[in-house]
Amino acid sequence: MVDAAALTGNWTLDPVHTRLGFSARHAMVTKVRGNFDTFEGTAYTDADNPGASHVEVTIQADSINTNNEARDQHLRTNDFLDAKTYPTISFKSTKVEKLDDEHVRITGDLTIKATTKQVSIDFEFGGVAQDPFGNTRMGFEGSLSINRQDYGVAFNAALETGGVLVSDKVDIDIEVSAVKLVDANA
Questions:
Q1: Each residue of 5-43: pLDDT tens digit?
Q2: For residues 126 and 123, what is the distance between their CA atoms, to the nearest angstrom?
Q3: Which of 42, 145, 50, 45 is nearest to 100 (CA)?
Q4: DSSP character string of 38-85
Q5: By its UniProt entry, which SUPFAM superfamilies does this protein fall under (predicted)?
Q6: Which domain holds residue 27?
Q7: How far apart are alpha carbons 37 and 176 in whole angstroms?
Q8: Within a domain: residue 186?
Q9: How many domains does the chain have?
Q10: For residue 174, what is the domain's CATH number?
């Protein structure tokens, strides 16, 4: 069992050790995977009162990376994310629930292209550790699926064999390494 004091406090996402990834079906036969390379996030966790916890994440939409520059450029256009008009994607929690000692559900507002929808993400707790540099780290992994049409991400093309070029369903995978902020008053 992890000490409540180790879990309680302010945290920041470590972008080098955190992955905000996604996948969607392409031509209905395979998946294209990618992630966002530029983001920032903060959290406050309260081990004794999980409902007092909260999370905020801001993603730079133009940092989308599928390891194919031509596709990434297309994903940045109005056909998909319209990154020039809507430079950020954001998530702000509205509710945090402890499901058991290893799982938490975070519900909040996901905003893409100025459209906000409530989503819930179930996370598995990875633990708390002290890194070699004296930082306290906490890890979580979670996932959810969204319908991109709900956010105005509507581009598609019909295939001769039936189906469409890009699935509406997008699976989002989140692997978090958060670093506890040191209280200057401690």
A1: 778 999 999 999 999 999 998 888 889 999 999 999 999
A2: 9
A3: 50
A4: -EEEEEEE-SS-GGG-EEEEEEEGGGEE-S-HHHHHHHHSTTTT-TTT
A5: YceI-like
A6: 4-180
A7: 13
A8: no
A9: 1
A10: 2.40.128.110
